[in-house]
Specification:
The protein has 266 residues and is mainly alpha-helical. It is built from 14 helices and 4 strands.
């Protein structure tokens, strides 16, 4: 990916770099649920700061722990209304509790390069296949050669594995096994939206790395998108097998201009 494309996608809410929050945490799903449960859907950055640090809604034992929790949550999710990826997450969050694990995971994947480095590996595994931690460590070591100690790789692999488990892609405690996640219409909306931000439109939205997370056939994806459209979460037009997906109200005029530029940059 070119530097220009990364710059444009960063303006739309993605994050890039050499590491990420999974060097220290999982995707913090329960903390995110607690935070959103104590803040309004239209909350601003200052509201999230106050909730985590001043009001301690996450129940952290020290001021330092509160500050670190906020830092990691902000890195993973943005926690800013001007961030299009975060806005989409917040818009969809309260509509379906069952969709929340995959909603949170999708945004964490868009914003944590360390987690993203394991995507192809996990998706290559078949349902029922066992995934040893050592194999995850090897993937991370290959993605970041000579950067991390053995102890660090072990910790990173545990965090990453914990997130894929919380998102519904793995089962088990010490022995992890690949499973197929539950995909709700709201989850698919966010997956399609992430592909849209990357410049995809039409049928190409249904064959991206994002929709690959769902592990569903094209017909099943189309059915979920149709359900989301009926709920007013997006607009799906399907004429003669040609699909068009729209996301009214998700982007400002300036953000849509950036998205269009992304579509022309490799």
């Amino acid at each position: 990916m070119t530097e220009r494309r990364q710059q444009l996608l960063s303006q739309l809410g993605f994050r890039f770099g050499r590491s990420g929050p999974h060097a220290a945490r999982t995707m913090m799903l329960e903390d995110l649920r607690a935070l959103f449960g104590h803040t309004a859907p239209d909350a601003q950055r200052a509201d999230y700061v106050r909730a985590v640090i001043s009001e301690n809604v996450l129940g952290k034992p020290t001021q330092k722990a509160r500050e670190l929790a906020f830092h990691h949550l902000a890195a993973l999710y943005g926690l800013a209304a001007e961030n299009p990826v975060f806005r989409a997450l917040r818009r969809l969050w309260d509509t379906n509790v069952q969709a929340q694990p995959l909603l949170a995971f999708s945004v964490a994947l868009a914003r944590d390069p360390l987690l993203r480095a394991t995507q192809a590996f996990y998706l290559s595994k078949q349902p029922g296949e066992s995934i040893p931690r050592a194999s995850v460590e090897a993937v991370l070591a290959k993605a970041h050669p000579d950067r991390f100690s053995s102890a660090s790789l072990r910790s990173f692999a545990q965090n990453v594995s914990g997130t894929w488990t919380a998102a519904g892609f793995l089962s088990g405690r010490s022995r992890k096994t690949r499973v197929v996640p539950d995909v709700e219409p709201e989850s698919l909306v966010l997956l399609l939206f992430l592909g849209y931000l990357e410049g995809r439109t039409g049928q190409r939205l249904f064959s991206s790395d994002w929709t690959a997370l769902a592990g569903l056939s094209q017909d099943a994806l189309a059915a979920l998108a149709g359900s989301a459209s009926h709920r007013g979460l997006l607009v799906l037009l399907n004429a003669g097998g040609v699909k068009e997906v729209r996301f009214p109200g998700y982007l400002t005029t300036d953000e849509e201009r950036i998205r269009l530029e992304v579509s022309h940059v490799v």
